[in-house]
Description:
By secondary structure, the chain is α+β, with helices and mostly antiparallel strands. Helix content is 46%, strand content 25%. It is built from 4 helices and 5 strands, in the order H-H-H-H-E-E-E-E-E. A 5-stranded mixed barrel has the order 1-2-3-5-4. A hairpin with a 2-residue loop joins strand 2 and strand 3. It is rod-shaped and about 100 Å long. The relative contact order is 0.10.
Amino acid sequence: xxxxxxxxxxxxxxxxxxxxxxxxxxxxxxxxxxxxxxxxxxxxxxxxxxxxxxxxxxxxxxxxxxxxxxxxxxxxxxxxxxxxxxxxxxxxxxxxxxxxxxxxxxxxxxxxxxxxxxxxxxxxxxxxxxxxxxxxxxxxxxxxxxxxxxxxxxxx
Length: 156
């Protein structure tokens, strides 16, 4: 009867471990119940049947868990759960705005390398190639790289 109880606890623990690994990843009730079943099966085997049967039960529990983990790793479950799409979308901050090299404008905020400027009636984020530029300073568009507007002070 003790052997049947130990086998039932180990099978229940391994079944709950499979539920934890395959269906409900993370620490959940199934994982906690699995740990309780396996630990109690080992405790019960050591307590009632002795150290030899307890060692066999411990080895069977560990090997069962390892076998389930190996089965999980070799199955296609991870492939079904993994994200396969790549994001190739890029935001174009200058969409609908016509800005060309040489256009003039005025800084709206201080450009501590990055800030806002009013160019052709549009307030956009710009980068300074001159370093620090105070607000309300005349600027011109020096170059544009991948949607980034780089400006420089305009000296009249």
